[in-house]
Specification:
Layout: E1 13-15, E2 18-20, E3 26-30, H1 37-50, E4 54-56, H2 74-87, E5 90-94, H3 101-104, E6 110-113, H4 121-129, E7 134-137, H5 144-155, E8 162-166, H6 184-191, E9 196-199, H7 200-204, H8 210-219, E10 224-228, H9 246-258
Parallel strand pairs: 3-4, 3-10, 4-5, 5-6, 6-7, 7-8, 8-9, 9-10
Antiparallel strand pairs: 1-2
Helix pairs in contact: 1-2, 4-5, 8-9
Bound molecules: phosphoenolpyruvate (PEP) and manganese (II) ion.
Phosphoenolpyruvate binds near residues 62 and 199.
């Protein structure tokens, strides 16, 4: 179903008033984790000012260590929605357990399925039973075929509103957190009609190369970019190293826009 052979026209997904996969590029930004109303609100205000329409923020965090901050859960989603409503922003957050979907959906406009759960077929099927748009992240070591089959799990259950996002893969390289597979973008655009985004933050883990990577993604045909933003990254409860502060975010955005690649 996700193949371009099956549907030559690109899928355009309406999220609130924003179209993903249409003529205009899309930016998704926000903190790694929702930590408090105040923290999320500061980011929401910055997004509103910058004209960025979709606010991200993790509430169920798939952390490497069980002793690290695990997210605020439903309370985090409530904060995200409150801020979204305040500034007219759409919201996206990761759901890790099919049992949370029903309770979570009223608070989010997009269900994020994280890299670690791309192979969680029961979660994919459950997301496929909903009619809420899904942003599916590429697995840490997923091939293009596995990635597209994961999307197929969702759409085959009737939820055709799926967006794909390249977020870097594991390689031997250590100077980036993951390796941004830029070739995934034109391949996915060629093979599938679904919108394709690139998460420049998790793919690089490096604030100093976000803008060139975003420009490369857009030049390769990406429909949008995801980036992490925190009012005070130094005290962030997750991914403190890689989140942009608000002035850095504005600078990143203007650099990307000035390139002319962000349509
Ligand atoms: C995230 O976007 O919050 C996240 C955990 O990313 P990934 O699933 O790509 O690691
Ligand atoms: Mn993160």
């Amino acid at each position: 179903i996700v193949s371009r052979k099956n549907q030559p026209d690109s899928t355009v997904i309406k999220v609130k008033d924003t179209l993903v996969g249409g003529k205009a590029s899309i930016m998704v930004a926000g903190p790694c984790s929702v930590e408090s109303y105040q923290q999320t609100r500061e980011v929401g205000a910055a997004l509103k000012e910058a004209g960025v329409p979709i606010l991200r923020g993790g509430a169920f965090k798939p952390r490497t260590s069980p002793y690290d901050f695990q997210g605020l859960g439903i309370e985090g989603l409530q904060i995200l929605k409150r801020v979204g409503d305040e500034f007219g922003l759409a919201t996206i957050s990761e759901i890790v357990d099919p049992r949370h979907l029903e309770e979570a959906i009223p608070y989010i406009d997009i269900i994020q399925i994280g890299a670690r759960n791309m192979h969680n077929f029961e979660l994919l099927k459950a997301a496929g039973e909903t009619r809420t748009p899904v942003l599916l992240k590429r697995g840490l070591a997923a091939t293009m075929e596995e990635f597209l089959h994961a999307a197929e799990y969702i759409v085959s259950r009737g939820n055709t509103q799926v967006m794909l996002i390249e977020r870097g893969i594991r390689t031997y390289e250590k100077w980036t957190r993951n390796t941004l597979d830029i070739s995934a973008v034109p391949i996915l655009k060629k093979e599938s009609h679904l919108p394709v985004l690139v998460d420049v933050t998790h793919s690089t883990g490096r604030k100093d190369i976000l803008a060139p990577c975003a420009k490369a993604a857009l030049a390769a045909g990406a429909d949008g970019i995801m980036v992490e933003v925190h009012p005070n990254p130094a005290v962030a409860l997750s991914d403190a190293q890689q989140q942009l502060n608000i002035p850095e975010f504005h600078k990143f955005l203007s650099e990307v826009k000035e390139s002319g690649l962000f349509k």
